[in-house]
Design a protein that fits this description.
Elements (H helix, E strand, L loop, with lengths): L2 E4 L4 E2 L5 H5 L5 E5 L2 E5 L4 E4 L13 H18 L5 H4 L3 E11 L8 E11 L3 E10 L5 E12 L10 H6 L11 E5 L4 E7 L4 E5 L10 H6 L4 E5 L16 H14 L5 E6 L1 H13 L3 E7 L8 H30 L2 H6 L1 H13 L2 H12 L15 E6 L7 H10 L4 E5 L6 H4 L1 H14 L4
Parallel strand pairs: 12-13, 12-14, 14-15, 15-16, 16-17
Antiparallel strand pairs: 1-6, 2-6, 3-4, 5-7, 6-9, 7-8, 8-9, 10-11, 11-13
Helix pairs in contact: 6-7, 8-10, 8-11
This protein binds D-malate.
Length: 442
């Protein structure tokens, strides 16, 4: 086996992104830090040309570097297009490429190239490509590359969210494109991205709009709107007025402000309670529902007691006390083991939450109406999503809820807990995208 380490300053990285999955281009499963995820890079097949081969007539390790690059660009062309990086004002410069050569290939051979992302950093991506004979699957060569995103001056730049998300990385939660809208005395912060029919994404408790960062970054063909509810994230924190109907009315006023007549409403947990309330009060505004890790029932007497305890804890110990109590329940056990950075990310989000907003949300949830009688009235396309490891709103409840909604689909997400869009962003985004394809456009 020969082993060549090459430093290739300006080879461009081809990749295939989320859109590929939506267009039915094959994807394959990869293991990533013990967490089984789905890569959005497709396998591509390329043929070996005589001019690529050396004097012996075979494809050597240097030629494999070129072939791997060709495969990346092929993949890119089938997905978001070869101008993806330029669209975002960055260039993917390969700064390190190491080939492990296993077997020869000759002109006319068809080679299958698969890719997986190993690490997504702030400015760089490490990925591995594998080439095998299409005919018999024999491994021919592997390439490990490190790609740095640079600007026109050649300086490394922070990865734009859409590109990070496409690589399967965690998009940054910086409020890059956040705008603020007054909805009648309360100003809501809103992440708004894309064109097309509206998709309103409602976060759960005790979180904010960044829960949906991956979906906001990648659900192309929809106008993604992820607001902070009153009292959460970067929205105003009024001293009162926290009820589930008030949240629902805020959102309808937000749609009015944006001149949006109707939207698909996706709500996670408390966001689901709000989505049900929007259905109760404003159903003409809803063309589809995505109910994620949520339930229709009101709190039991015991549950209301726990809300009061949590309210007392928040008042006495601040947001950190809420984080301490909620964190073990919010994230699935697989996520807690395999994605410790997510535990810290969620802790940070909760600890930044304003206490009056937390208390208000707890009161609102404690006092909410049972929405179970509404389920049989839902006559728009509905998708129920649940993390298989969700302990707060477990899969059995999601199944029952889906069964009570005429025609609703149910998708369980392996390895995810209560915050499935954050814990398993790619599978959740994919099932949402498939569902959205079938929703009549408003
Ligand atoms: C949420 O995620 O919004 C909350 O866990 C919901 C609840 O506590 O009922």
């Amino acid at each position: 086996m020969s082993h060549a380490a090459l430093v290739l300053p300006q080879l461009a990285l081809g990749s295939l992104l989320y859109d590929a999955a939506l267009r039915g281009i094959p994807v394959f499963s990869v293991m990533n830090h013990g967490n089984d995820r789905v890569s959005l890079f497709p396998a591509v097949e390329v043929m070996v040309y005589p001019f690529e081969c050396d004097a012996f007539g075979h494809l050597n390790e240097a030629a494999f570097v070129q072939l791997f690059e060709r495969a990346r660009w092929d993949a890119l062309a089938r997905g978001p297009g070869q101008d993806l990086f330029r669209r975002h004002g960055v260039w993917p410069a390969v700064r390190r490429a190491v080939v492990d050569y296993h077997r020869p290939a000759f002109p006319g051979d068809v080679i299958r190239v698969e890719a997986e992302v190993e690490k997504v950093g702030r400015t760089s991506v490490t990925m591995r490509q594998r080439a095998s004979h299409a005919a018999d699957g024999q491994l021919l060569a592997e390439l490990e590359i490190v790609v740095v995103l640079i600007d026109r001056e050649g300086k490394p730049v922070a990865m734009p969210e859409a590109i990070a998300a496409a690589f399967g990385g965690r998009p940054s939660t910086r409020p890059g494109e956040t705008i603020r809208h007054d909805v009648g005395g309360v100003t809501l912060a809103l992440d708004s991205r894309g064109d097309g029919p509206a998709l309103l994404l409602l976060h759960g408790f005790p979180l904010d709009r960044t829960l949906w960062a991956h979906q906001v970054a990648t659900l192309s063909r929809w106008r993604r709107l992820a607001p902070d509810l009153r009292g959460a994230g970067a929205s105003d924190v009024p001293s009162g007025g926290y009820t589930i109907p008030a949240y629902a009315d805020d959102l309808v006023r937000l749609l009015d402000r944006l001149r949006i007549e109707r939207a698909v409403v996706a709500g996670l947990s408390m966001g689901g309670y709000v989505a049900f309330e929007m259905w109760r009060r404003h159903r003409a505004r809803i063309v589809g529902l995505i109910l994620v890790d949520t339930r229709s029932e009101a709190d039991t007497a015991e549950g209301r007691g726990r809300r009061d305890e949590m309210i007392a804890a928040a008042r006495a110990g601040g947001a950190a006390a809420v984080a301490e109590r909620m964190l073990p329940q919010l994230l699935g056990r697989s996520t807690q083991q395999a994605q410790p950075h997510l535990v810290e990310q969620v802790r940070g989000t909760i600890e930044r939450a304003p206490v009056p907003g937390l208390v208000g949300a707890l009161e609102a949830m404690r006092d909410r109406t049972d929405s179970t009688p509404l389920l049989s009235t839902i006559d728009v396309p509905t998708l129920v999503i649940v993390g298989e490891e969700d302990e707060l709103t477990p899969p059995a409840g999601a199944r029952a809820m889906a069964a009570a909604i005429p025609g609703a689909a149910l998708k369980a997400i392996p390895g995810a807990g209560h915050l499935s869009p954050l814990e398993a962003p790619t599978p959740v985004t994919r099932v949402m995208a498939e569902f959205l394809e079938a929703v009549p456009r408003p």
